[in-house]
Amino acid sequence: MPRHHRSFLTLLLMGLLLVPSALEAAKPPAENPLLSPEDAPAPSFRRGNARISAETGAPVALYRLHYPVAAGTPEAMARQYLAENFSSLRLSSPLLADLAHFATREMPAGTTVRYRQTFEGIPVYGADLAVTISPAHEVSFVMNSYKPGVHVDSIVPAVSAASARARVIEHLGLNEPFAFDQTTLAIFHHDGVSRLAQQVRIAPRVAPFGDFLGLVDAQTGELLRVWDKAAYAPVDGSGLTFDPDPLSSAGATYNDPGYTDGGDADTAELNAERVAVTLRDIDLTGGTYTLRGPWADIRDSESPFEGLYQQMSDTFNFTRTQNEFEAVLTYWHIDNIMRYLNLDLGIPITPIQYSGGARFDPNGLGGADNSHYIGSTGEVAFGHGGVDDSEDADVVIHELGHALHDWVTNGNLSQVNG
Q1: What is the CATH number of domain 44-144?
Q2: How far apart are CA 88 and CA 172, in angstroms?
Q3: Domain residue spans in the chain?
Q4: CA distance 39 to 125
Q5: Is residue 40's pLDDT more than 80?
Q6: Using CA atoms, how far apart are residues 158 and 149, in angstroms rounded to an integer?
Q7: Fold for domain 161-228?
Q8: What is the pLDDT confidence band of residue 414, given thresholds at 50, 70 and 90?
């Protein structure tokens, strides 16, 4: 991480408060017609420091709580909070008998305790709670996908595990041997209806490859869902970029010979200031490389709509006259900043509008000489009027700074303060 980046972030972070968050691995859209589409997220809305389920009225996320609990083990502190707030969380009882602890993770910013909802000892698919506790013994963050009203008349399956497994294998055309092969009972609760299901998880060693999860109704044999849960092909690529900008790295002044914009023209001097970098964890799907990773994610959300600059090679070597160059520069700098904050400093700051890397459009605003952060979408975009904004790391970091301020204050971005 260059020194000037760290200095900028030090100043930025002085005004930020920590908030835990989750990060999901990027994966490609399901192209296999045999697979079910991912269920759409349940509708929700923001209210104060909470995101509320429109269906149940329960908070699905609670931010910056500062809820004090008695010092104890992480699980004891988490259970105290859940028991004292079971009603507002729409849990069934303060006894928490239907919550099974399955993980505790300790980090410098806090400890996260995770529970899975059960019904008569059977896990409810996709129904978890995560409680994050600060070192000061305060619950700071809660994620809640508990499903109220889960009930099935019988937990005795009419369809055997072997029959359900065979149903999924036949449907997908899977071939042995398998690296993973497990079938267990689960409760699948969707749109207010609970079903006892056989949950089949198979990862083949031979084609078709994937990490397949199938849900089969354990009473009727109906195939409810089939998904591929594999996180696909983050790989490292390479590219050329400015770091931070050619004037700074060359110690030059604008209008020195070779150091002018010239209508986005290449010069020998500007080309010489490009440096080779590693583009970490970019996406490889179907032989196509995309500047999309766990910390930065290219988008084409604003005109002139030039696409995602995808290619069949992992080498992104361009000059500034090519718009691909700005895409590489923006990805690399945003990726570096987000990794530095989250991994090096241990401060979990990620988008609140979506899961995954910080989204950016390297060629937006209709080509105007400006850049902006859009709080409603959580995306940054850069214009190309004059010297292209996305050719200057300081501009990229400035706009990302607005995003970080928005995310760390849970949507309370100010144009005056911060």
Answers
A1: 3.30.310
A2: 42
A3: 3-17+233-408, 44-144, 161-228
A4: 13
A5: no
A6: 23
A7: Nuclear Transport Factor 2; Chain: A, (3.10.450)
A8: low
Could you report the per-residue pLDDT of 193-244, keeping only the tens digit for each? 999 999 999 999 988 888 899 999 999 999 999 998 876 656 899 999 999 8
Cβ–Cβ under 8 Å, residues 310 and 289 = yes
Other Cβ atoms within 10 Å of 16 Cβ, number = 18
Q: Span 3-17+233-408: which CATH code?
A: 3.10.170.10
